[in-house]
Amino acid sequence: EEGAPGRRGERERNEEGPAERGPGAAFHMFVLMEDLLDKLKLLSYEEEALRRHNMRPLSRHYFALPTNPGEQFFMFCTLAAWLISKAGHPFEQPQEYDDPNAVISNVLSELRSF
């Protein structure tokens, strides 16, 4: 039974803090954000998504550091809507003051339909 998925030993390994995972674990989110930004740039997100909504380009660590949760959430929703539309599924751009739960529900519903 050891090593079976969902067993206690596996859960403990997955819940380790950054110190237990190694010295670079604390910076993993920054690496992921840089990879995300590179991929968005390849898709021309600045010209296609940001200019249309008069938004500034993302910094290398925009989503890695919690600075302004409301602004970051709206940027995430804007990018999600743009990516869904770019994938060929028409998706209405959320507005800044829309209910966050409804917006996320709509995004997840659309992604499930893929």
UniProtKB/TrEMBL annotation:
Asked whether the keyword rRNA-binding is assigned, the reply is: no
Q: Name one GO biological process term.
A: intraciliary transport
Where do Basic and acidic residues bias regions lie? 1-19
Q: Principal localization? A: other
This protein's GO cellular component annotations are:
cilium; Golgi apparatus; intraciliary transport particle B; microtubule organizing center
Region of interest: Disordered: 1-23
Family (UniProt): Belongs to the IFT57 family.
Identify the PANTHER family for this entry: IFT57/HIPPI (PTHR16011), INTRAFLAGELLAR TRANSPORT PROTEIN 57 HOMOLOG (PTHR16011:SF0)
This one is known as: Intraflagellar transport protein 57 homolog
Q: What is the scientific name of the source organism?
A: Agelaius phoeniceus
Question: Which classification does the entry list for the species?
Answer: Eukaryota, Metazoa, Chordata, Craniata, Vertebrata
